Amino acid sequence: MLGVPAGVAGVIGYQMGVQRDGLAPIPEETLAKWERELQEQRAAVEKSQKEAELELRSLTTHMASIEARIQRLDAAGQRILEEADVKDASEFDFSSPVAVGGPEEGEFNADIAVDAASPSLLESIRALNEQIDRRELQLDTLSNLLGAQAKAKDTFLSGRPIRKGWLSSPYGYRTDPFHGKRAWHNGIDFAGDEGGAIQAVAGGIVTWSGDRYGYGKMVEIDHGNGYKTRYAHNKSNLVDVGDLIAKGDQVAVMGSTGRSTGPHVHFEVYKNGRAVDPASYVRRNYR
Fold this sequence. Notes:
Blueprint: H1 3-20, H2 28-84, H3 119-154, E1 166-169, E2 172-175, E3 182-185, E4 188-191, E5 197-199, E6 204-212, E7 216-224, E8 227-237, E9 244-245, E10 250-254, E11 264-271, E12 274-276, H4 279-283
Antiparallel strand pairs: 1-4, 2-3, 4-11, 5-10, 6-7, 6-9, 7-8, 8-10, 8-11, 11-12
Helix pairs in contact: 1-2, 2-3
């Protein structure tokens, strides 16, 4: 296209030279036609140049937008890693490309039109798009990992079943407060003010919520992996059987129902069907 105007001009110049040398003159209609064609070709070239400049500007803007997306993805991924305190983050290194490979089916994708005039720009855009895909895959993997960690942390038994109060009776043998004889205490008691909040020490599903002999109003939660907890002598229960509970959710209000001498929560922990000392779970921390 760029060579056509020059060719037309050359033909016109040649024909005018021939005319000066005394050869047969070129009809004016033919010269006028060539002039029109020359002007049309020049206009077409100018139009193509403008279109190319607009397309190049659009591609440059698009590439800048892609680079900005990559920077945001990298920043988000790095922030998540820092907040989650992932110990081995080598597979989530957002500062370097992800190691990938595989057989090459073709030099370019068939659905991408390659402009021979600007291969480097198109290759840069293609590389940036691939980098975004890899970053998004990293973030998806990281999100799944953190989700699993959050679930494990939520079902990890730890902490006290009260927000305010004090330990009033330990696990094991003690003097029974009603008959004064030595008797076995199957949990630990936390005393506090009537109406105080009783909270779940781990996430799980409610398997009991109601009155139970000796316990008064009681809530039992199954945490999976063979663990269950019980919260007894409540003034009122705030959950129903089948409710899903998250760690720290309030499940009852402290009271003195059942076999009780005052406002407190009787807290029991069961592992594989056997009662264990809740104190060790109260003191432990998630790692």
